[in-house]
Each structure stands twice: as C-alpha cells, then as structure tokens.
Write a structure and sequence with these properties.
By secondary structure, the protein is of the alpha+beta class. The chain has eleven helices and ten strands.
C-alpha cells in the first residue's frame, strides 16, 4: 500500500517528471536517500515510470482511437502485437475481452508514409471482425493534464516549489525536427534518464541536451507523463465511455466532463460517437453512481456506450523487451489514452 511519502512522490513527479530527488525530498520533508529508495521501490513493485512525450501537434502527428473486434483468444494476440508497435499507445482489452482499443499515431501531412497500420496491416488481418477508427480532433483532458486522482497529496505551496523553472525559449529552437527523434525515443524509454545517458543516445553533448530540453519544455513541445499501477490508488474499475453529443453542445459538455475527478481522459473525435472519455473508479458500483449522477445529469448527451476495460496491455511508453525485476509489469490508466 502507498503511504503519504509515496503519494507525495507520485504527485511531485506529475508536476515535474525530471525534478531532482533533492528538490522533492526538500518539499516532502524527508531525506534525498528516502526519495531515491522509494522511487526505486515504486518502479519495481508498482510499475512506476516517467515517460517523456512530444506534443503530437508540434510533432506533426495525428492521433486515432482504434476499436477492433475479434474473438477472445485472437483479441489477446492482436493486442500484444499492437503493443509492440512504435506507433501505438494505450492498448487495452475491453468489452469482455473481445474488443481492443488503441491510440495510433500517424503523420498529419497527407501523402506521407506511416499509415501502414490503418491502411494495410489491419485490413489484411482475418481474425478482426469489425473495425472503427476515430480521429482525435481535440483533447480536453489527458496528455500534459494529469488525472486528479493522483494530485491530492501536496498543498499549493508544495506544488509551487516543484514547478519547473520558466526559461524563455530561443525562437529558432522551438520546433521539433527529425534531429530530435533520438532524444524523444530515449525519453520515452526513461523520462528521468540522466544528461549523460541522453548524450550517449543522441551523440550530443550534455550541455546541448540540457538546452534542448529547456527549449522544448518552455514551448510545450515536450511534456512528461507517468505510468503506474492505479490499483494502488484504489482504482479497480475502468471503462471507456463513447458518447454522442450535438455539435452545438460538444465543447460545453466536454469541458464539463473534463472537470469530473472520475475521468482521466476526455476528447472530441470523429464518428457517430463524437466524444470519448476514460473513467477510473473504485468499483463497479462507483462507476454506476458516476454514470447515473453525473453523466446522466448532462442532458446534451444523446447516447452513451460503456465499454469496461479488462486489461491494459500497453500504456504510454514502449513495452520493455524484458520484464522488470521484482514484479510482473502492470500499467496505469490516466489522462488519455493520451500519449
């Protein structure tokens, strides 16, 4: 079980995934060694991982929520195959294990390569019985915005002390370029990788790495997210909510839902169900109460489909090639399928 130090550390990493342990220790009122030890334990036993991610718009990427239907055995194999791909995140088994939901990242520019999964690989997979793809038009909750369930440990003063220093970005260095690919790949594997390790992965100097990180973070082109086993925070029931809302009310409804502490992700998408959300609840009864009391009170929602999530196969970061020492890998659900 998590104690106050664990929860404070998790909250601190949500605020700044690369905050020095010494800074976190000072805020929490414990030693640096305690914070370092707790971090290593959470990584080994709770699948904690800090992941660095590029803002998809600045990276020239479009996100698609993919829904695939297949038989239970085929669905598990397909989910595992999708999880191994570099262009996917948030791969989950839902609806009794016969549905796969995944976030797919494709180039935004028309005519570019990189749409193989949507255009070639899936249509040729005989085990798939139904497919729907929903382009993510706008993310209201997810990505850089954290699930409120993880942000309940630190007070306003502690949060202020952990905010990354604001550094003016150099205008010529604001855009992500292909030269950043190695840096972003290394940060996806470990968002807390040292400057020395990042220099080895990119061939740049540590000073160049530090300047580039500061530039990208200053303009919001790079942010940090967390993976964590949310059952340690009392979450045992997850569900994807697919809603249909009249376009005139879509923005208001989405902003209303984004303020619900039960939700970790809210996005406007294409298709008959034009609003999607991810709910994290303590148990099925809590999910039922949420749907009745809060979602049901939003009159502009014309229809609602609830798809329970049975297992998260992949979260935001790459699936490790070997299991972590100490415990089987368990992944979190937060802001989005949002990576």
């Amino acid at each position: 079980m998590l104690d106050d130090i664990d929860r404070g550390l998790i909250h601190a990493l949500h605020i700044d995934g690369r905050a020095p342990f010494s800074t976190i220790a000072d805020v929490l009122g414990v030693s640096t060694q305690t914070v370092s030890r707790r971090y290593r334990r959470l990584c080994a036993e709770a699948s904690l991982r800090v992941v660095g991610l590029a803002d998809p718009h600045r990276a020239g990427r479009t996100q698609w929520l993919l829904r695939l239907t297949a038989g239970p055995h085929a669905a598990q194999d397909l989910a595992a195959a999708l999880a191994r791909r570099a262009d996917t995140s948030w791969v989950m088994l839902a609806s009794g294990g016969t549905e796969i939901v995944a976030l797919v990242h494709t180039p935004t520019a028309v005519g570019q390569a990189g749409h193989a999964l949507l255009l070639h690989d899936i249509p040729r997979t005989a085990a798939i019985t139904a497919v729907s793809a929903h382009c993510v038009l706008h993310t209201y909750l997810g990505g850089p915005t954290a699930w409120p369930g993880r942000e309940q440990s630190l007070d306003a003063e502690q949060r202020r002390r952990l905010q990354p220093a604001t550094v003016p970005a150099r205008p010529a260095q604001q855009a992500l370029t292909p030269a950043d690919d190695d840096l972003l790949a290394a940060l996806q594997r470990d968002g807390r990788a040292s400057l020395t390790d990042l220099a080895a992965a990119t061939g740049w100097s540590a000073a160049t790495i530090a300047r580039r990180l500061a530039d990208l973070r200053a303009v919001g082109a790079l942010f940090f997210d967390l993976e964590l086993d949310n059952t340690l925070l009392g979450v045992t029931t997850q569900a994807m909510l697919w809603m249909a809302v009249a376009p005139a009310h879509l923005d208001h409804v989405a902003r209303t839902l984004a303020g619900h502490h039960e939700l970790a992700y809210v996005a406007a998408v294409t298709g008959p169900s034009n609003l999607v959300a991810q709910a994290l609840c303590p148990d099925p009864a809590a999910l039922h109460r949420y749907l009745i009391d809060k979602v049901g009170a939003v009159a502009a929602i014309r229809s609602l489909e609830t798809a329970p999530v049975l297992r998260m196969v992949k979260a935001i970061g790459p699936v490790p090639s070997t299991p972590r020492t100490g415990a089987p890998r368990r992944t979190k659900s937060r802001t989005q399928p949002a990576g």
